[in-house]
Design goal:
The chain is α+β, with helices and mostly antiparallel strands. The chain is 61% helix and 16% strand. The chain has a single domain, classed as Nucleoid-associated protein YbaB-like domain (Ybab, Chain: A). A hairpin with a 5-residue loop joins strand 1 and strand 2. This is YbaB/EbfC DNA-binding family protein.
Length: 108
């Protein structure tokens, strides 16, 4: 029994794969370029983090001589946790922006 090949379906599948591949590249680029700024609870430390989770800069505001190493460590730990959460949030938003139209096409 010979199978009938639906060339239109194959062409559509190839087009969808190419579009998905383009959107994935767009997403990867956006995630690497999008930077979020977060601050420690006492606002003495600022961390810049990409949506990919790469910390690109750490800025200390004010002087450090009035605090103990343990206090500074707590602030650093808190801002790094915030940076991780901010990167995840930014990735999710970018994912929705980039792939939202693709899901809409599938539903249509």
């Amino acid at each position: 029994m010979a199978r009938e090949i639906d060339e239109a379906w194959i062409d559509e599948a190839i087009d969808r794969y190419r579009r998905l591949d383009q959107m994935r590249a767009q997403f990867d680029s956006a995630v690497a370029e999008h930077v979020v700024s977060v601050h420690s609870p006492d606002d003495s430390i600022e961390v810049l983090v990409t949506a990919a989770g790469e910390i690109t800069d750490v800025r200390i505001r004010g002087t450090l001589h009035h605090r103990t190493a343990a206090e500074l460590a707590r602030e650093v730990q808190a801002v790094v946790v915030s940076a991780t959460e901010a990167a995840r949030w930014a990735r999710e938003k970018l994912h929705d922006e980039v792939f939202g139209s693709f899901r809409a096409i599938e539903e249509g």
